[in-house]
Amino acid sequence: MPQYYPIFMDLKDQSVLVVGGGNVALRKVQTLLSHGAVVRIVSPKVLPELRTLVDDRTCYWLEKEYSPEDIGEACLVFSCTENEEVNQQVSLDAKTHYRPVNVVDDPEKCSFIVPSIMERGDLNIAVSTGGSSPIVARQIRQELEALYGSEMKEYLSLLKVWRTKVKTSLPPEKRSVFWDRITDGEVRKLIQEDRLSEAEGVIKQCFLSLLD
Ligand SMILES: C[C@@]1(CC(=O)O)C2=NC(=C\c3[nH]c(c(CCC(=O)O)c3CC(=O)O)Cc3[nH]c(c(CC(=O)O)c3CCC(=O)O)/C=C3\N/C(=C\2)[C@@H](CCC(=O)O)[C@]3(C)CC(=O)O)/[C@H]1CCC(=O)O
Ligand SMILES: NC(=O)c1ccc[n+]([C@@H]2O[C@H](COP(=O)([O-])OP(=O)(O)OC[C@H]3O[C@@H](n4cnc5c(N)ncnc54)[C@H](O)[C@@H]3O)[C@@H](O)[C@H]2O)c1
Predict the structure, then answer these.
(1) Which of 123, 195, 199, 194 is nearest to 158 (CA)?
(2) CATH top-level class for 15-114?
(3) For this UniProt entry, which residues form the secretion signal (predicted)?
(4) Which atom of ligand 2 is closest in space to residue 24's alpha carbon?
(5) How many other CB atoms are there within 10 angstroms of residue 162's CB atom?
(6) pLDDT (0 to 100) of residue 105
(7) CA 87 to chain centre
(8) Would you say 107 and 1 are in contact if contact means Cβ atoms under 8 Å apart?
(9) Most exposed residue of 40, 53, 117, 177, measured as fewest CB within 10 angstroms of its CB?
(10) What span, in angstroms and rounded, lies between the C-alpha atoms of 59 and 100?
(11) Distance CA 99, CA 74 (A)
């Protein structure tokens, strides 16, 4: 098993090929669509849930068996069929065209694997066990979901706004004092308790106290 290198990839408006239309394809397609990818499904059959996405023009469906030209412009390729020969062929074709490929069920044929992900606004945590146990990856994701709640979205967007202000108004040594104070837990806790204006007050007061 290789030591996989994790990256966060911008898939907005990027073409992605998914071969197969079963449950696994559905799971991959849903995540791809929620990250802005333009998804093309190639499969003789698709599940009703995928059919709905196609009817709503959320993704494209080529109703046929896979053939090598389907790789097309795809920047990522997923092979989610139950047929090992088809999966093997998709993997070979993608690799021939230097496209990263994920073959469900078979890490050996993958050039990348998919982590278990959780998102809270700009916080994005991806968990992988390198293929050792997808169930453990899911369990760790669930534990992290309990640890980092919905407050993270508001918390990070608030910090993002202040980052620009702090960069332009405070010298580097005061910036670190500011960030240590703002991220010591109090602001996050106030947001967790829906006390947003008090959280903003703590930040503002700290900022003003550090201005010359
Ligand atoms: C994270 C997640 C993302 C996603 O796919 O979206 C994901 N699998 C998930 C769930 C899951 N998959 C399976 C079960 C049933 C229980 C079980 O068998 O363990 C469950 C549990 C469930 O359903 O909750 C079956 C399974 N999966 C693989 C094999 C083949 C093998 O291990 O050799 C088999 C056996 C097939 C069989 O026996 O028929 C292989 C892979 N699955 C991966 C990712 C990659 C490694 C991730 C890592 O460990 O780092 C890798 C290598 C390739 C890939 O698919 O990218 C998603 C959790 C999403 C979430 O809930 O957060
Ligand atoms: N990695 C995982 O997370 C995971 C989880 C469960 C199952 N699996 C395994 O992954 C495989 C797929 O699972 P599933 O539940 O989606 O299976 P499925 O049988 O529901 O779907 C397979 C799909 O592949 C399509 N297909 C078959 N031949 C094709 C071809 N030549 N070209 C294009 N499409 C073709 C079928 O029409 C079907 O839509 C199975 O082998 C299963 O054991 C993996």
Answers:
(1) 199
(2) alpha beta
(3) none
(4) 16
(5) 19
(6) 81
(7) 24
(8) yes
(9) 177
(10) 20
(11) 8
**ipTM surpasses cut 0.85:** yes
Give residue 55 CA to ligand 2 midpoint distance, Å: 21
Question: How many angstroms does the Cα of residue 127 sit away from the middle of ligand 2?
Answer: 23
Rounded-to-integer distance, Cα 145 and Cα 155, Å: 16
Residue 170 is classified by DSSP as S
- Alpha carbon distances (Å) from 200 to 45, 182, 192: 53, 10, 13
Q: Tell me the C-alpha distance between 155 and 134, whole Å.
A: 30
Where along the chain do its domains lie? 15-114, 115-148, 151-210
Determine phi and psi for 11, rounding to 5 degrees.
Answer: -105, 5
User: Which residue pairs from 57-62 have beta carbons closer than 8 angstroms and sit at least 24 positions apart in sequence?
Assistant: 58/33, 59/29, 59/33, 61/21
Could you read off the pLDDT of 59-86 as tens digits, one per residue?
Answer: 999 999 999 999 999 999 999 999 999 9
CA pair distance 100, 84, nearest whole angstrom: 18
Measured in whole angstroms, the distance separating CA 144 from the mean position of its chain's CA atoms is: 15
pLDDT in tens, 151-177: 999 999 999 999 999 999 999 999 999
